[in-house]
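Sequence decides. Consider this:

===
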Amino acid sequence: MTARAAKKTSILIIYTGGTIGMVQDAKNGALKPVKFDKIQEVVPELKKFDFIIKTITFNPALDSSNMNPISWIKIAKTIERHYNAYDGFVVLHGTDTMAYTASALSYMFENLDKPIIFTGSQLPIGVIRTDGKENLITAVEIAAEKVQGECLVPEVCIYFDFKLYRGNRTLKRDAELFSAFRSVNYPALAVAGIDIKYSIEFIHYPENKGILKVNTDFDDNVVILKIFPGINQNVFNSVLNTPGLKGVVLETFGSGNVPTSRWLINAIKRAIKRGIVVLNVTQCQGGKVVMGQYQTSVELLNAGVVSAKDMTTEAAVTKLMFLLGQGLKPEEIKMYLNKSLRGEISE
């Protein structure tokens, strides 16, 4: 008897939009969208994997600046519909809001046991110096990687310029360099060189394998309010008194500090008394919020502001929208904001 042939690895590529999906027209040199059902002709290297690679293209394709919770839900439901048919997923996405979308997806997928790898490019895939081909090829390889039949990286990640990061730990740091993304407060999950070297100790594995839950409820009645020297009292009050407002991501100085102006503290206190959840995030790319370390943050702590610790702004605002979408009470939301749901925060 001959041994039964092993099942081929299958990867689904989802093109949502973005720079990576453009090629130059052979006649006039203008950029036009790739036909992603022909992606293996544009990137023939993919054929060498001997994987089953299928594609889905959003119609219309979205510039990442136009992404919103409806778009995040569409991506999540697309993956959910095809979850059992594929070993891994690669989501092609514009770079500007990729960290927001990856963070949002991480909260939606509970007990995820397959890779969802976001990638894109700074230059279109159809131009000579593109970074898109390497990003796509390696993202596919990572999405397909298994050890003893189990997916090696069962997380929502961002792969860009030879680094694999946890999606909800990542931010876009540069508009021009190929190394557009960075994860300051959490190590890279893998680094691609001659080989792809995985840092297994930093990868999150689900506690309940095979019990996937996808929750797509969001509430977008939130605002990011950045503190700056000379912030105007009327403007500040007007933001906090926005009709329907339920959550505020307060971007503060350093380790969570704000001016000690009485009017500012009182405005925050009044907002919290009305049931608005206020989450304190540092404006710095690295480090964390430690409320009470300085006098300028003691008042926030006493008022009931929640520390985001070392969360990125992208992870914080999407987490707040996600928790508000669950219909929880403010105190319950505060409790979950202080807990790591998908590795977005160091506890």
Remarks:
- Residues 10-214 form a domain with the Rossmann fold fold (CATH 3.40.50.1170).
